[in-house]
Amino acid sequence: MQIHFSAAPVAAARLVALVCDADTLPPSLEPVLAQGASAARFAGKPGQLFEGFVSRGGAVVRLALAGAGKADSDDRVANLEKAGAALTAKYLTSGETVLTLDLTASTLSAGEVAAVLMGARLRGWRQDGYRTTLKDDQKISLATIAVIGAPAGTEEAWAIEAAVAEGVEFTRELVTDPANVLYPESFVARCAARLAGTGVEITVLDEPAMRALGMGALLGVSQGSVRAPRLLAMVWNGGGDAVRPTAFVGKGVTFDTGGISLKQPAGMEDMKWDMGGAGAVAGAMLALARRGAKAHVVGVCGLVENMPDGNAQRPGDVVTSMSGQTVEVINTDAEGRLVLCDALTWVQKEYAPAAIVDLATLTGAIIATFADQYAGIFCNDDTFSGQLSAAGAAVGERLWRLPMGPAYDKLIDSAIADMKNMGSRYAGSITAAQFLARYIDKGTPWAHLDIAGMVWADKPGAVWGKGATGYGVRLLDRYVRDVLEG
Ligand code: BES
Ligand code: MN
Ligand code: ZN
Questions:
Q1: Is 337 one of the annotated active-site residues of the chain?
Q2: Nearest-CA neighbor of 345 among 254, 267, 437?
Q3: Which atom in ligand 1 lies closest to the alpha carbon of residue 336?
Q4: Stated pTM of the model
Q5: Minimal-distance CA residue to ligand 1 atom 7
Q6: What CATH code is carried by the domain that includes residue 131?
Q7: Residue 203 domain-assigned?
Q8: Is CB count within 10 Å lower at the N or C end of the chain?
């Protein structure tokens, strides 16, 4: 989706959109449209849409009114995004190629316009690359939004949001791609290509390098797959070397069959998006670089495929992690924590981060808890937890904190090793977090985001269609903006 700005209306505009606050219509609106809108009960509710046709200068113009709710709403930004999203959702495959967003009579601020455009762009993303038989009328037609009469500063505000949108779209692309296309090596190649020239510095560890470092937990997961594992680090140093980096660490299981503890067939195809945490980290790094964030951030992705095979690890195997701690693998399907623990140890050794956020599609239990409404946050630092939750709330990627503690930690003690990789039937998301906590150095603020319910949408949402949401990118970007740059 291209977004252009100009002062004057495009003479030949066929499709024109206006953003309307609750219960208000632009005074200059043709009476027939104003009457039509009220007959259709258009009230300017967030995301509500009305369209009609008018004759202007001898041409038929398709006019859309997009509702943005009350101007003083606490959810103003989200509501403006919904207005933009409603427009692209409606016209994406309509045959229209250009949508003219007419702001000449609008009172929206530059930031508010940027929010409308953000919603429009994010909702307008779709992956059609694997479809070869789409009829012309099923293909995306809308290619351009021409913005006219935007207030001063809109282009600057949009440039920042556009960088974030690019990150979200990159994440969605990674999450959407199937596991025969996207596996550890190709994930790395994709990131290297997208980040080339951005100033992000990339380091890649292959299997021998990880073996030399003693990453027995990550490698144990990988050993049943013919796909070679990778550890990917992406450094964006926009904040100078004086500041210790903040680390984002993502679970990148490019496919999770469960391994020998094999999953049920029904729905297993979803496990192509078991790399959603790593995808979010990669997208966030792209966003930060693209908008030139004044912050020092390292993104790390632990990339493996979890397969059953003659060489796969068995339930009962004991592996030694890079930290030296040993793990009894009770269930080979609790693999994400085994990948993350070595990635977490490595990032602390290598970069001495000031704080760590990990993102992972870690447990089905978090979906049982929150469905697709919240990701779970587990955190050893109240301030940090509050900052991340505020960042999530600001961008519509909500977090809800869950408890941790010694009673839960005890549940993963093992009779043969330092710990086991799962607890009892209960509190599955919490025991997973307790496992990760055992790999965090004392004194390092750390947050674990269990995003299993957020990465993939079965139905369209506020600013996404069915499929990959890109969850996490906007949250991480907002945290960097408000806390590291703020
Ligand atoms: N990747 C899954 C978690 C998951 C499930 C993500 C559904 C998205 C949708 C994870 O590796 C897993 O299998 N977790 C197990 C852990 C259990 C064996 C302790 C789970 O949640 O069932
Ligand atoms: Mn699993
Ligand atoms: Zn998994």
A1: yes
A2: 437
A3: 11
A4: 0.98
A5: 364
A6: 3.40.220.10
A7: yes
A8: C
